[in-house]
UniProtKB/TrEMBL annotation, chain A:
Molecular function as annotated in GO: metal ion binding; tRNA-guanosine(34) queuine transglycosylase activity
Its job: Catalytic subunit of the queuine tRNA-ribosyltransferase (TGT) that catalyzes the base-exchange of a guanine (G) residue with queuine (Q) at position 34 (anticodon wobble position) in tRNAs with GU(N) anticodons (tRNA-Asp, -Asn, -His and -Tyr), resulting in the hypermodified nucleoside queuosine (7-(((4,5-cis-dihydroxy-2-cyclopenten-1-yl)amino)methyl)-7-deazaguanosine). Catalysis occurs through a double-displacement mechanism. The nucleophile active site attacks the C1' of nucleotide 34 to detach the guanine base from the RNA, forming a covalent enzyme-RNA intermediate.
Domain tRNA-guanine(15) transglycosylase-like intervals: 16-368
PANTHER family in alphabetical order: QUEUINE TRNA-RIBOSYLTRANSFERASE CATALYTIC SUBUNIT 1
Catalyzed chemical reaction(s): guanosine(34) in tRNA + queuine = queuosine(34) in tRNA + guanine
Subunit structure, as described in the record: Heterodimer of a catalytic subunit and an accessory subunit.
Cofactor(s) of this protein: Zn(2+)
Name of the protein in question: Queuine tRNA-ribosyltransferase catalytic subunit 1
Secreted is among the record's keywords: no
Source organism, top-level taxon: Eukaryota
UniProt similarity note: Belongs to the queuine tRNA-ribosyltransferase family.
Residues bound to Zn(2+): 307, 309, 312, 337
From TrEMBL, chain B:
Stated name of the protein: Queuine tRNA-ribosyltransferase subunit qtrtd1
Any Gene Ontology biological process: tRNA modification
PANTHER family, per the entry: QUEUINE TRNA-RIBOSYLTRANSFERASE ACCESSORY SUBUNIT 2
Pfam family, one: TGT
Amino acid sequence: MKSALKWDVIAKCSTTKARAAVLNLPHGPVNAPVFMPVGTQGTLKGITPDQIEGLGCQIMLNNTYHLGLRPGQELLDACGGAHVFQGWNRNLLTDSGGFQMVSLLKLAEITEQGVQFESPHDGSLMLLTPEHSMSLQNSIGADIMMQLDDVVSSLTTGPRVEEAMWRSIRWLDRCIKAHKKPESQNLFAIIQGGLDPALRKQCIDEMVKRDTPGYAIGGLSGGEEKDKFWRVVSLCTDLMPREKPIYCMGVGYAEDLVVCVALGVDMFDCVFPTRTARFGNALTATGTLSLRQAKYKDDFRPIEEGCDCIACKSYTRAYLYTVVTKETVGCHLVSIHNTAYQLRLMRQMRESIIEDRFPQFIHKFFKDLFVERSAYPEWAVNALKSVNVDLLKEGDN
Amino acid sequence: MPPLSFNIIRQSTQLSAARRATLVLTQATGVQPAADKDQQDASARRVIETPGCLMYSVKGSVPHLTPDTLRLQGFGGVHVSIEHLLQEHQPAGLEKWPFSLSKFLHLQDLILFCDIRDPSRYHKVPFNSDHHVSMVTHQGVRQLTLEEYLKVVRAYQPDIVATFADTISDLDQTESGKVNGKGRGQKRVRKSVERSLKWLDQILKERQGIDGLAEDRALKEASKNIKSNGSLNSNGGNASKENLKSAMDQLTQDAQRLNMSPTRSAWKGVSVFAHVVGAQLEQERIRSAQETAKREGVDGFIIDLKTVPGSRDEVFGSLKTSIDHLPVEKPRLVYGMQTPGGRHTRAYINHLLKAHEMLATVLLMSHNMHQYSQFFAKVRQSIQDGTFEQQSALFVKRFGAEPEETGSLHAAQAVVEASLSKWNRLDGDDSEREAAAEAAAIAKDERLKAKELRRKERREKNRAEGLQKKANKVESLRKQLETEHDEEKEPKMP
């Protein structure tokens, strides 16, 4: 099908499956691997678009389900899309609304036709079909839009998983057919199939035939065992076309990002950094600081030495201790820092891939974060071993 | 050369007392050795153009605005309330932070004005005494003594500090949220004037490096002695009052002799603005203003309109009463004034408000601040042009009808604040992913609970079984005993 993106791989890691690339989208280039902050309702938790741009963010996520309910399709059409609506001149990615099936299952009923939701605002029934999702996403005008998929929880087993996989393929066909602006908006397919390698393989085979501009690995990050999670990711990146961007949905913990980049994933999103910020938790290379704790009362260091975000440049931990979870400013500052942290982590990975020292980066990253080798998560050690990086072996530094 | 200067650029030539001026802070060298960087930052000339306003802050941050957004607003000064900064028992970082409060709050490029209480809140008559004022903190109502306040000033080194004052409000909040004026006793008002003047004197001494509080302690000691001698009852007859007075005079002289030369370093970079009080009583307002004006070393005056009840005309009448008795060459700061109220569209802000997103208040705050900034710029320009009187008459004609009563302002403010705090709940909903995570957490919790319950049940069951066994044993023993007993008894029965 038509594509409105250009995917230029500029470097490949000689050890792992990691790669550095430039994803050229309608609203400018995006350096990959990339983390996309989540602005669910057309705004990133109190951070102004200028500030987000100032952090070097090139692409942000919006949620179709939320924007469809509010402000609604009519208004989005009237103002010319979500970019204009929220004053954001860089790229946007919208998810299809499918994820809400898992998270709002109590309110949703899935049939071949689509997903029937109960509106959380007025209780009325809404049917989200692949056609409706596409129409909404066309109105939003995101640079990347996701197909409506039949999401089952990654903990589900049995025939439901296979049913969901085949239905997702059928829905992809309907999405492709309903997509009105393939020349300016890119439709990504979402690989389903739960934790079953055979189903995943079948799904990839079918979806690759549809030749969408990019692919996402869906149906993960739902509480499955990490050791199963990475195996599915690695299987998918092995089977997916290497000349297209690969997006792993809902992944955002720092160690998960590093492992998944090593497994060959290019794009990520997660609400975790901004959500945890609202509880006063600041992310750093050496772990999370819970700034509400009294031990920061007299700590006059910035959150993270060397961080150039506005929170670290302006304030000490002692000051942030007085405002986090009490003032909105506290929340904005930590959100800004956490977003800056995520984006910096991705930048560092990208640079190390380009300079072909990514394995060294991985070693240092785990050492900084977990200090002791005994504290390294076993799944991460296994995953990285599968791409020739042995975290427990000396001498790689 | 004093660090603060007030330069009147143009006095309105017409009927009003309007004037255009600048409040300039040339240099701030603190009492304590400031770090090089701090000095560098402070070396820039900082200005507040007047008529103008200070930015209100909570915990030293202008609500909803991060430092970068704040700098876009174009104001020269920030108001910080000590009561916000109280953590547990002392203001944040007070003893260990080696630099100024400006640096702690990242406000080195602005003029930092420091007062004790939050000027936006309406306070009932507080339970102040001769030794402390009450303030509201996260840990509840707390008392602050002058001594503690002076310690705060020395450590924090704000550019301008408000005097310790017994500001009493004459407004009372009823259950329905309405605020009505309720005449406060003359006695209480007079007391507030006296206390505030006394504290003002002590602050001015402290500023020169004289430990005025040592005197105070000596006086206290004296009065204690006199009391213990039994020559003075608590209300004080004339004779005993004189006794006390002479004893005090004596002691004051002693103390002054001791403190003739400053015992500690004077404040170099801190200027003093004095609260002018007097609540609703005209003669007390005049007395407070006149007495405060007499003091040397006061750099400016503060008048709190929130303490005065009545219609707008009455409130402005009270304001005028105070201002008429203050020196014209010094700046005046008024609390509780209201003025009527980019690329982001109204539709977007409407969406953010409906979605309870925090960016709504960020953008609105930004917008409103900009309006204030523009408003004051226009006022200054009109003074400059000599058209202030005509412009203000036009303005009042256009916007002047509402609101009439100070009470309605407070009520409206209360409603807005209540709804805003609801929107800005920091633990508020984010997205469905979050909801899912929460649901998962709850489910996990429930699983754990169920597990715990099962374990408990098993324990109970085991215990019950054990008890049953024991009971059976006891029963059998009892039966055995009974039969033995019976056997024992049996022979006696017949």
